[in-house]
Amino acid sequence: MSHKVRQKSTDEILMGSSKARKIFNVCNYGLMIVMIIMALVPLWYIVCLSFSSSTAVDAGKVSLWPVDFTLYAYKFILQSKEFYMSFFVTVARVLVGVPINLFLIVLIAYPLSKTDHQFPARKFYVWFFVVTMFFSGGLIPTFMVVKYTHLMNSIWSLVLPGAVNVFNMLILLNFFRELPKELEESALIDGAGHMKILFKIFIPLAKPALATLLLFCFVNHWNSWFDGLMYINDTAKYPLQTYLQGILTVPDLTSMTNDQLAMWASTSRKAANAAQIVITTLPVMIVYPFLQKYYTKGLTLGSVKG
Q1: Band of the pLDDT at 8, cuts 50, 70, 90?
Q2: Would you state the pLDDT for residue 101?
Q3: Mean pLDDT value across residues 121-140
Q4: Distance (Å, rounded) from C-alpha 153 to C-alpha 156?
Q5: Fewer Cβ atoms within 10 A, N terminus or C terminus of the chain?
Q6: Cβ-contact 212, 170 below 8 angstroms
């Protein structure tokens, strides 16, 4: 009798947990769907604005579908050779800046991932880098450093001042610390040096974290515009974001042809801004799917542990 009662209570518990699990899944999926909609609707609205006529945009007629479909805003953005020049400057910046970022982050994160016994000065250097996350020399001192090191008006002024991102370095540092110590110990016994251990063992195992950091560095370089405004004097050397920000805020009307002036006068500022967002977001959206499978794993394995 007691066995039947015990069996019945167990079945009730399992049934209750099963019902609770179903309720949780429904609420969880519902919440995720709401969050996806909240993220996609504004982006879709921007796309609709970019493909709508200036009259419809200014009149506020555009909602979730383009009104009077047109490519006029994109023609305005893509009409000049300066756009393509700035695009190639940004591509060059990404191709130069991202490898430098990753290389320096790896070289810093590896020694700082060691124990205090292996690297006695570790705490000093960790605090040396962490302090820079909260305090900086300021805008004017940074500008003076770039100026007096003769980096002004060159691609190096866009790459070197932010070559080491401390947040990204901490992610990789914690990833390295989670790797089994036995791998390094066995390699040391076999006579491998630290550089060989780093490039033959640690880096191949850190592909998820490195893919995540690659995405972070790519987005950072692609979206930066203020440093181009600060350090580049020749508008022909502007990166893409700086160029687009300039033509949409303070356009150089003296350099425009009559056709460009007419297009500028008849183009809605909102539609042009929307087209700018779409153009600059598209490369990131193309790159992200290739790195997405590493993204979550890289963040969780490299996150700060309690």
Answers
A1: low
A2: 94
A3: 85
A4: 8
A5: C
A6: no
Q: Tokens at residue 87, please?
A: 């695009």
Euclidean distance between CA atoms 195 and 253, whole angstroms: 55
Q: Which amino acid is at 46?
A: I
Report the 10 Å Cβ neighbour count for 169: 23
Quickly list DSSP for the chain: -HHHHHHHHHHHHHHHHHHHHHHHHHHHHHHHHHHHHHHHHHHHHHHHHHTS-HHHHHTT--SSS-SS---HHHHHHHSSHHHHHHHHHHHHHHHHHHHHHHHHHHHHHHHHTS-TTT-TTHHHHHHHHHHHHH----HHHHHHHHHHTT-TTSTHHHHSTTS--HHHHHHHHHHHHHS-HHHHHHHHHTT--HHHHIIIIIHHHTHHHHHHHHHHHHHHHHH--HHHHHH---GGG--HHHHHHHHHHS--GGG--HHHHHHHHHS-HHHHHHHHHHHHHHHHHHHHHHHHHHHHHHHHHTSPP-
**How many of the other CB atoms lie within 10 Å of CB of 292?**
12
Alpha-carbon distance of 202 to 253, in angstroms, equals: 54
Tokens of 183: 């791998």
